[in-house]
Amino acid sequence: MKIACVGASGYGNVGDDTYPLVFAQQLPEHELVFYNSDLPDRLPDDLGLLVIGGGGVLHNVGAEPEDAESPHFRCMKFYLDAAIARDIPWGFISCGFQFEGQRDAAYATALKPWVPYLQQAHFITLRSSSCVRIAREISGRDDAMCFPDAAYLYQPVLAAPTAAAHAVTLVPAGFVNPRNTLINHHLRQLASSGLSVTWLSMGAPVDDAPLLEHALRCFPDSHIIANPGPQAAFDCIAHSRFVITGRYHGMIFARTNRVPFITPVDVPYKLRVEELTADIATAAGHFDVLRRFTGA
Q1: Spatial CA neighbour of 54 closest among 22, 10, 101, 102
Q2: Half-sphere CA count of 162, side-chain side, radius 13 A
């Protein structure tokens, strides 16, 4: 079967670029085509299934007014409307809601354009019970399912550790940045213990390049890893003794490798609602649901 997978891969964000690798691993018997906000002229004529996910693609950030359609939503709508018009199965796999700043309390307004699509979807698997609760409240349906994020299934063969051990790895985003007072305080403490520090970029270059440049100016003895890709980022975190991350997938890679980590207290919704006691192996449930629609 030919399956279209629509997410945010292809722009240099390591987390988003991990999902196509996981989908390809989990669905090897199918032909997968991956799309993002760069809309194609048309979708393949022989498409048999459409998947939105994985990642925090269920958002309407940037809409004016708030309950209007944002540019991102209109891109996702292009794919959903195409699936509906062709009468092929479609739905959401390993998705999460995403809100601007601390605006998640206004979810009913922010997610209004998504409601009719959540109501019509053939399948909905989300990555937190908080997201499932919101989906059920705004759609009126009770069959949305919750499993840990599909990226927990990404477990490549590890490269051998290098001589330059990554004692402490910082994944910049939000408050994890070289200008932050608390981060600077932690780095002074780590330096006094003789631990090496690595700044690992897991965001798109447009977001992370200025942070890495500033980190190198402020902490010239730090190791900088820019534009690593999923394998290199996974290896770096796996060989670290401790991780400080502002990025969701920095946490996922740390948990997968059982590396201790911390995040700032004030973090995006997806980090705040992550269920840290969940068995990450149950992330396979996303694909158990999906296989009901693939003929497997």
Answers
A1: 22
A2: 9
Would you say 7 and 34 are in contact if contact means Cβ atoms under 8 Å apart? yes
Per DSSP, helices labelled H in 87-204 are 107-110, 115-120, 129-139, 181-192
Pick among 2.30.30.240, 2.60.40.10, 3.40.190.10, 3.40.50.2000: CATH of 166-272:
3.40.50.2000
- Give alpha helix (H) positions in 122-202: 129-139, 181-192
* pTM tops 0.85: yes
* Nearest partner of 249 among 211, 209, 287, 280, judged by Cα: 280
Annotated domain spans of the chain: 2-148+278-293, 166-272
Low-confidence ranges of the chain (pLDDT < 50): none
pLDDT per residue as tens digits for the range 128-166: 999 999 999 999 999 999 999 999 999 999 988 765 557
Q: Which residues make beta-bridge pairs with 32?
A: 3
